[in-house]
Amino acid sequence: MIDPDVSAVLRAAHRIAPYAHRTPVLTSRSIDARVGAPVHFKCENFQRSGSFKLRGAVNGLLGSLTEARGRGVVTHSSGNHAAALALAARLLDVEATVIMPETASEAKRQAARRYGARLIACGPTLADREAALESFISAHGALFVPPYDHPDVVAGQGTAALELLAEVPDLATIWVPVGGGGLASGTVLVAEAAGVTVRAGEPELADDAYRGLACGERQPAPPPLTVADGLRTALGVLNFRILHRYGLTVTRVAEEAIVEAQRLIWNVLKVVVEPSSAVPLAALLEVGADAPAGVILSGGNVTLPEV
Asked: Cβ of 113: how many Cβ atoms within 10 Å?
């Protein structure tokens, strides 16, 4: 397959427009003061299915819709791609199955079920997911829609940055979380064409992107220990290639900083986000800024505390 570019993102924006929300951008004077510059939050926690993942799932499914309708689709996911593909499949009248780690949050399990997906549990590691996926495809012939490692998925994820820059064109940087790299690589395609710098935040306990981009070789995912459950996977092959070519700078953040940034977003912006969404803000707070910055809040699928 040909690597996507900004024209692929523009085509994706047109394709997914009937299915995806154009999410709002929020600001906070108190967060601006802490960072040292204006910060604009692209709220993908308000996206359908609760995260940016719907963009890539819809674009990926539309790219092979005839085949998908004949075979059904399957994926592996710790949560947000599961719900996104389940919803995309329901919107496009396709049967969906999701291989989901047994460590996935109950909120994300419920979301995938709510949109009609069949769930199959697997072990917590990426190897466990891939083995279960291969077994299911061999038995049922379903079409695999990857969570991040596919040109159509990357192009779909890039539409969030496309919308952000259309609304706030004077941004100097866009900050994103990095896990599998779908959002980060899609954002790079858009920002690079616009002359805007992309920076990424990554948990210290899941720092394969930081280590891999530093040494020039993809690294395996560390044990799934970080509270940012959406970032517990390794960079995809395509995603690594795009981000390495770009020279993405990754800032690692501690677990305490992630929780504090999540608390800040909840208390100040008054919106619900999951820990993975707070990672780029945690990184931005650590580094600071002297020019307008964008932060993509990747999702809001989180189990609320009991009262």
From this structure: 15
C-alpha 177/C-alpha 227 separation (Å) is: 13
Structure tokens belonging to residue 157: 């994820």
The model carries a pTM of 0.92
CB 119 within 8 A of CB 112: yes
Dump pLDDT digits (tens) for 267-278.
Answer: 999 999 999 999
* Residue 203 and residue 228 in contact, taking contact as beta carbons nearer than 8 Å: yes
Region of residue 84 (phi > 0: left; psi between -120 and 50: alpha; otherwise: beta): alpha
More confident residue, 294 or 77: 294
Contact 185, 239 (CB under 8 A): yes
Check if the beta carbon of residue 175 is closer than 8 Å to that of residue 87. Answer: no
Q: How many CB atoms lie within 10 A of CB 303?
A: 12
> Could you tell me the two tokens for 273?
């986000």
Confidence check: pLDDT of 124 > 90: no
Enclosing H/E stretch for 275: helix 275-287
Judge whether 235 and 218 are in contact, CB under 8 Å. Answer: yes
Q: What is the pLDDT of residue 305?
A: 64
Of 51, 1, 52, 47, the C-alpha closest to 21 is: 47
Distance separating alpha carbons of residues 305 and 177, to the nearest angstrom = 24
